[in-house]
């Protein structure tokens, strides 16, 4: 029973490199003026130093990366410059105010936000210029749901039309209500039948995303504090500005509410729905506990991928009204597969990138008591919504192990399944990720076994 289920491992859909860089970017450090400055504009604070020279500015900013101040130009009185320390040199930007602060296209409520966003942008563009230039080369756009949903919309129209064929007359009354799985659709319809019958250009608008967001074309993080990318006003597609130039003309206005459950940042999702945990987690676990706890190989046996995709699309379309009952999906492995898929597709894993190293370090501790103490401290690093969801999931998996005689799933086996699902190594080092798999398993196994103590 101790073998590792490597076939359950899937590489993450969402790429964390740019997210990690944003986390590493220098923080703003305001250099305050110690004396009163005459004629200071009312919309500037103590960061305003008046008409000082570039040399004096360099000296004031030399203490640390991210240091900044505002000065009045000596050459052009009445104009203002934001001076910012980055890359061990002073950068100077002409600063404007029209009710909001700006040095370029983006407008900010405060100088602090402007500097924060600027430091993030400078840091990422300095560290990852080549990476950013190649972001659009290997898109994941066709894999994240829009293409499938477009196809199903086109298919729905065909099914409702019920073309006149020899058997069509007999089944016409059932045509609009019959539930066809995507497997049957793909088996019975030609690829050309599944394609959308028209093109529509996306209506992209610059958008400020609240909470972390990933581009739905290239799967990379959308960095910055505001105006991180663009959003289609008609279908809701979120992409980088540069990616918007290569997105296919396949806008489907009917789909403006899709992708609000899967592939959405967990904290953003629970805030949007005002829930303690993501609805998909609660609903799947309730369904599994109602009829699947004694199912042999629960969570280890994979459900049929086409039907798992159906469940995902049902949640993305219908939210809490999604039907995942036994009448819709008799095989409980479809529901366990949909739950695992939800966690795999989280842009920031349930055990977050920031907390990941602490959990791995804890797993390497041989003393059982110190291991538990270290895990307890690591749990404090998780955002509240992540911690609550993890607590609920571990309680459920503990109940799964209580039926081990029937389902053959011990905490060790569940750790093997859920380790790589709930934890992903930050960065792009595949070798590190592979080496960490045994520690990921041990973390989850310990969280299950000692769920009542750790949470």
Summarize the structure.
InterPro entries: C1-like_sf, Chimaerin_SH2, CHN1/CHN2, DAG/PE-bd, PKC_DAG/PE, Rho-type_GAP, Rho_GTPase_activation_prot, RhoGAP_chimaerin. The protein has 455 residues and is α+β, with helices and mostly antiparallel strands.
What tags apply to this protein structure?
single chain, about 450 residues, alpha+beta, SHC Adaptor Protein, Wheat Germ Agglutinin (Isolectin 2), domain 1, Phosphatidylinositol 3-kinase, Chain A, five-stranded mixed beta sheet, 21 helices, globular, DAG/PE-bd, zinc, GTPase activator activity
Protein architecture, described:
The chain has 455 residues and is of the alpha+beta class. 44% of the residues lie in helices and 8% in strands. The protein contains 21 helices and 8 strands. It has helices at residues 17-24, 54-61, 111-127, 129-133, 146-161, 168-171, 182-188, 191-194, 241-244, 266-273, 279-291, 305-318, 332-344, 356-363, 368-379, 384-401, 404-407, 411-422, 430-435, 437-449, 451-454, and strands at residues 29-30, 67-72, 80-86, 89-97, 101-102, 204-207, 229-232, 238-239. The strands form 2 sheets. A 5-stranded mixed β-sheet has the order 1-2-3-4-5. A 3-stranded antiparallel β-sheet has the order 6-7-8. Strand 7 and strand 8 (238-239) form a beta hairpin. Helix 12 packs across helix 13 (332-344). One of its GO terms (biological process) is regulation of small GTPase mediated signal transduction. This is Chimaerin. Residues 201-251 form the Phorbol-ester/DAG-type domain. Residues 47-115 form the SH2 domain.
């Amino acid at each position: 029973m101790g073998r590792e289920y490597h076939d359950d491992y899937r590489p993450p859909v969402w790429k964390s490199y740019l997210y990690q860089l944003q986390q590493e970017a220098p923080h703003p450090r305001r250099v305050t003026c110690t004396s009163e400055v005459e004629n200071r504009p009312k919309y500037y604070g103590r960061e305003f130093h008046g008409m000082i020279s570039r040399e004096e500015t360099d000296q004031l900013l030399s203490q640390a990366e991210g240091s900044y101040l505002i000065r009045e130009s000596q050459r052009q009185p009445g104009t203002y410059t934001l001076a910012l320390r980055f890359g061990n040199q002073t950068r100077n930007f002409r600063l404007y105010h029209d009710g909001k602060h700006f040095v370029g296209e983006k407008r900010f409520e405060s100088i602090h936000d402007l500097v924060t966003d600027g430091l993030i942008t400078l840091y990422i563009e300095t560290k990852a210029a080549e990476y950013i230039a190649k972001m659009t080369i290997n898109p994941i756009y066709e894999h994240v749901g829009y293409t499938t949903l477009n196809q199903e919309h086109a298919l729905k129209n065909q099914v409702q039309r019920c073309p006149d064929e020899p058997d069509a007359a007999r089944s016409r009354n059932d045509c609009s209500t019959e539930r066809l799985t995507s497997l049957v659709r793909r088996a019975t319809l030609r690829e050309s039948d599944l394609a959308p019958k028209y093109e529509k250009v996306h209506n992209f608008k610059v958008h400020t995303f609240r909470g972390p967001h990933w581009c739905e074309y290239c799967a990379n993080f959308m960095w910055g504090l505001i105006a991180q990318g663009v959003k289609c006003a008609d279908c809701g597609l979120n992409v980088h500005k540069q990616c918007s130039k290569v997105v296919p003309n396949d806008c489907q206005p009917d789909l403006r509410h899709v992708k609000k459950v899967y592939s959405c940042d967990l904290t953003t999702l629970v805030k949007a729905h005002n829930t303690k945990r993501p609805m998909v987690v609660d609903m799947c676990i309730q369904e599994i506990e109602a009829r699947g706890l004694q199912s042999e190989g629960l969570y280890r046996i994979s459900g049929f991928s086409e039907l798992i995709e159906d469940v995902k699309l049902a949640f993305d379309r219908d939210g809490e009204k999604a039907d995942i009952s036994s009448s819709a999906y008799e095989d409980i492995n479809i529901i366990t597969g949909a739950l695992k898929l939800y966690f795999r597709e989280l842009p920031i894993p349930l055990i977050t990138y920031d907390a990941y190293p602490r959990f791995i370090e804890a797993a390497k501790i041989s003393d059982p008591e110190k291991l538990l103490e270290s895990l307890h401290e690591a749990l404090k690093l998780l955002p509240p919504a992540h911690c609550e969801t993890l607590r609920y999931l571990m309680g459920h998996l503990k109940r799964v192990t209580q039926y081990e005689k029937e389902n053959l799933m011990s905490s060790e086996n569940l750790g093997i399944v859920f380790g790589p699902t709930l934890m992903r190594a930050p960065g792009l080092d595949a070798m590190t990720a592979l080496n960490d798999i045994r520690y990921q398993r041990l973390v989850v196994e310990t969280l299950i076994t000692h769920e009542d103590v750790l949470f």
